Amino acid sequence: MEYSINPEVWKSVFAVPGVIVDENIKLSGAAQLKVLLWVLRHWGENFVIEDISKALGMQLADVKDCMQYWCELGVMQTAESEKKVEVPEKAHEEKEDKKNKIVILKPQKPDVSHVAEMILNDKDVAYMMNFAESIFGRLLSHNDKSTLLHIHEYYSMPIEVIVMMLEYLSGAGKCSTKYIEQLAADWWQKGITTLESAEKEIQYLTESEKLVHKLLVIIGQSGRPATEDEIHTANLWFGEWKMSEELVRAAYEKCISNTGKFTYGYVKKIIESWHEKGITTLDKVKKEQADKKKSKSGGSSYKATYDIAAYESSSLADSKEWD
Q: Can you give the pTM of this predicted structure?
């Protein structure tokens, strides 16, 4: 079958630089090419990135990433790059010497050409990128791809481990580049480089998320990200100390009753006091209260104290409200 261009379309034309087809079309994605064609068609007009986003039905962040892609390839340039003035290397070195400052450079992520080359020539890298797009339900930006390849190359993390990490993040609703970078750095520091170690870490993280969610619900703070302290506390109380949900809720209610507001440190004091006594359930609190009442009714001596610390450690559970 032979093809030809409809003569009618030649009534309105615009130029496309030859370098686009000769050097870049093979490695460029559909999104990048769509943005470039729109820009070339409207070159010389006054437009902003929002216009491209609306015309192509693309997310604003994706359009920005595509524009950056062509800038890195030298096809486009920004106003800032045109005005950029190079600082002589020697002068820069002298300035640093005067400050006597040590500068630690952050490792650079792979550039556009290297990412494209790896996707083209390494089937495992290509699989990782395709899997990420499939599980996240969106096209990967250049920053996404560069980040994933950076994790693989800089952290020496196997593709299969990265894939497992992405699957976990997708299930947790944390599909941003920020979360991917943070978790990858954390795993690298922990030496998580095998499927077995990654699976164990994911099991821990999944259980930890359940525990901290339980804590936030009890203290009326659900619907927001947990702090590091809250994550640690949830794992300590529910995971390590095996405190029941009812017991923690009782401590929270006790705090509200005694102070009129939620005070995190106050609830901690109550829980720590019960832990020291081996109390892990609300039934044990009630039993201890009953035993103390029975002991006091038997004529045991009691000395008044105004020591707040002593009061918190010995009397937090001593209330008629537990009856």
A: 0.55
